[in-house]
Amino acid sequence: MLTNKETTRAKEEPSLESWLTDLVYEFVTDLVFVTDAEGRFMRVNKAFEERTGYNQEELLGKPTHLLYPWDHDKIEANKKKIWEKDFVSNVEMAYLTKEGKNIPVIVTIGTARDSEDNPTGLVFVARDTSQINELLNGLQASNERLKQANRELEQAQEQLIRSERLAVLGQLAATISHELRNPLAVIGNVCYYLSLRLKHADEIVREQLETLEREVASCNKIITDLLDFSKPRQPTLSKASLNAIVSRSLSRSTVPGGIEVVAELDQDLPQIMVDGEQIQQVFLNIVLNAVQAMDTNGKLEIRTRKRSDSVEIEFKDTGSGIARENLDKIFDPLFSTKAKGVGLGLAVSRALIEGHHGTIEAENGLGRGTTFTVKLPLEVR
Amino acid sequence: MRGKASILIVDDEAGLRGTLADILRAKGYLVVEAANGFEAIQTVKRQLFDFIFIDMRMPGIDGVETYKEIKQICPQAKVAMITAYAVEDLVQEALSSGAYGVLYKPLDMKKAMGLLEKALLGS
Q1: Residue B38: strand, helix, or coil
Q2: What is the ipTM, given to two decimal places?
Q3: Cβ contact (<8 Å) for A196 and B106?
């Protein structure tokens, strides 16, 4: 019971309680509203009005779930808990503004009680997290960018290590290759001499000599690949027919009898500026790969055609194909799945085609086999 | 002409020089060998040659220098340079100074004989 004197003073000076209430309704930047026991709006603060676009008068007595239609069930389900616990914190919700916009909020919901401690309603104190979310998204985006930059750096570093390694390898290869060419040349000369002198020897002797010559040639190919790879040569360009280079490459390849070769050469293919020797070397490499992939039986189809800005040469075999995990690696130097071979043929091929500003790609067929596609630009850049 | 033509082989590698000489002799040519540029220059001062094979890389005077000297003394001889490298600035230098052709090691003997016969026919 208040005395008269005290009542008079209370009228003159606002009580701490009403001062706090004013503070909450006028100055607190969190969004606050109070409901009655049935979940209808009783009071909202200024920050709430500003942010949601509703005002106190229009909301009075309306069910609060118009504000959070998506979270209505969640609140209902937790009502009992809220009643008992006095308050729950950090409830993530979305408020719907009068204009139909969503505001993400984190809410503390408390229970209002009368003097007998009976719950009379709920108090929602919400913090607008849209700005925090924006900040978080921004942070996440810059984090992604950082990660990407880091990945790129790592790749660049790997590339650098690889090119350094290759440079050392290249120097070594060049020296050794050159030194090997002299004795190889002597063996080649001796072969030739013996075949001159043994023209009338029996078939086995002549076969042996041919084997020797063939092996010298394959040794020389390894050396050529190594040298081409370690010291790439600028292409010497002249106008040439790609069809003629395909035919020449085929005539120089050894294809087992069980392999059928079909060439569909576009007769209207324009001549383009290429280094004929280099392109032939690439085609020889591709044909050799195809033949090795097919063993003794199969079909090799070669097609040439004109595209809008390039000439395309396709080599399609029915061989064993390339394992999916290796498809990206086959043009890498020193990569080989064959028991025989250094793994430079396709690496050199790619380098030569890139030297012509062209592209070379490998693709597995649907059932089996591989298709290599070389594209060379119509116009020299 | 063939069988009587005289050929000089200049190469510091005895194996290469010797085997090429054997082949050419087996084909009926008259062959003289020189183990370096200096020896080659001395040789052409004493004797005329129709065709000369010169290795590009030799200790002392290199192949191109040797060729330039020999050209002064024996201008009618056709000269083929031999090299183990496909990429070589010296190859261009030799060709632009008038060398007849370039052959690569290991020698493609059909090509080498073709070049030789063509050169001798033209002379």
Answers
A1: helix
A2: 0.84
A3: no
Q: Which helix (H) or strand (E) holds A14?
A: none
- What pLDDT sits at residue A166? 67
Q: What is the DSSP letter of A40?
A: B
Which residues in chain A are contacts of B13 at CB distance < 8 A?
A: 182, 186
- Beta partners for residue A372, in sequence order: A315, A362
CA A21 from centroid of its chain's CA atoms? 57
Q: Per the structure block, which two tokens stand in for A292?
A: 């090795």
Q: What is the mean pLDDT of residues A193-205?
A: 90
Cβ contact A368:A318 at 8 Å: yes
Residue A330 is inside which H or E element, if any? none
Distance from the Cα of A139 to chain B's closest Cα (Å) equals 54
B/e letters for A222-242, b = 16+ CB within 10 Å, e = fewer, are: bbbbbbbbbebbebeeeebbb
Query: What confidence score (pLDDT) does residue B1 get?
Result: 45
Contacts of B22 in chain A (CB under 8 A): 189, 193
What are B37-55's pLDDT values in tens digits? 999 999 999 999 999 999 9
For chain A, the residue count is: 381
- List the structure tokens of A120: 């009379």
CA torsion B32-B36-B38-B43 (nearest 10°) is: 0
The residue behind tokens 């040298």 is: A227
What angle, 0 to 180 degrees and rounded to 10, lies between the N-to-C axes of helices A130-197 and A203-230? 150
Contact A182 B16 (CB under 8 A): yes
Pick the residue from chain B with its C-alpha nearest to A185: B106
Nearest residue to B29 via CA among B7, B54, B52? B7
